[in-house]
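Box 3.1. Reading complex inputs
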Amino acid sequence: MSDQIPPRLQEIIEDFQWSEGREKLELLLEYSEKMPSLPERIRQHLEGMERVAECMTPVLVTAEVQDGKMQFYFDVPRESPTVRGYAALISEGLRDLTPEEVLQVPNDFYHQMGLHEVLTHQRLAGISAILAHMKHLAAHHLTQSEGG
Amino acid sequence: MNQGYAHPEYLVETDWVAQNMNNPKVRIVESDEDTLLYETGHIPGAVKVDWFTSLQDPVRRDFLSKDEFEKLNSRLGISNDTTVVFYGDKNNWFAAYALWLYQYYGHKDTKIMNGGRMKWEKEGRPLTKDTPGYASTQYRAKEPDANIRAFRDDVFAEVKAGRPLVDVRSPKEYSGELISMPNYPQEGATRGGHIPGAVNIPWSKAIREEDGAFKSPEELRLMYESQGVVPEKEVIAYCRIGERSSHTWFVLKYLLGYPKVKNYDGSWTEWGNLVNAPIEKSAGS
């Protein structure tokens, strides 16, 4: 499967490319602050969300598929603004994609954003696990719909 | 509050910080694991250090140079005689890391705010997003203090002499079960386990769960001494990259008054990659 960056994510990547050093972190903070709260139907069933095990920060994720398009929802504590900002950014960047398109997002797309200049390797490893988990949800949906 | 600790002058309570926020001889410094937290709101008047982008060398695996350390302090408005008080998230994990570095470059008047960010917030104390600006200073750092930093040769000597090593990582990292964690290639080690002879005392055991403050001197002393980590011997603490172990270093050095404690910042990411270095894989007691 060839790597492909969806248009909305491409815009976000470019915003980061235009920002230098500290501005990248400020941008991340903005995403963290405007992260939408969970829809009531999901908040009522937090046990249905999955924990991204590789992240030091408790990150919960779930996905819904409507008309073949995926929406991801995250729950990340406010005390972890870096990871929260990243989760907000990626759920926006990957909004309304088909599961196949989600699977095509390159795993190292954040390198283009220059995040490795401001975040540690370990943090990057943790946040790349978030995309890995989203792909896992996408793949799971594909196998389910094939089976069903 | 701080009674019974060997060097209580290295610890202050949130009350003290609240009273000294505007004291020109005091600089409050936030140092977090999540380095964006400062921007979400911090103690009024506090400045920020980012342990990755401001305390480490951008190229070599090392701390920032003496020259860069001087520039950092000059920029933060810290003079040689300023009382520097560190606090941060996650039980002052990276606050201790920053304090260790200040000690390394000879800044003697350093303190940790007991309980860190969490206690300050829980007590409903003020946070602000305003970033203060301080007049820059002429800061002069001292030569690095070799007595508080261990390099790998020091660790080999420690193992050979049978002196105490404290592995402050989680039990699973200590036993070697957790090392090839998925998605952790870059700062990982190719081998799991611990340095032979090291005892496992996870760093956060020094902390009271309810408010994130340090445990009593009696509890701390019992915890370390019962595992053979005693003040009569030179002790080396290590973890994965030397951050968690700087917290234990603080506890041993200042709260319990151990005269000779070093932090091995190379830690497991160095030892577990060193060719021919001995490794033990047993579980802790």
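In summary: Residues 234 and 260 of chain B are 5 Å apart (CA to CA).
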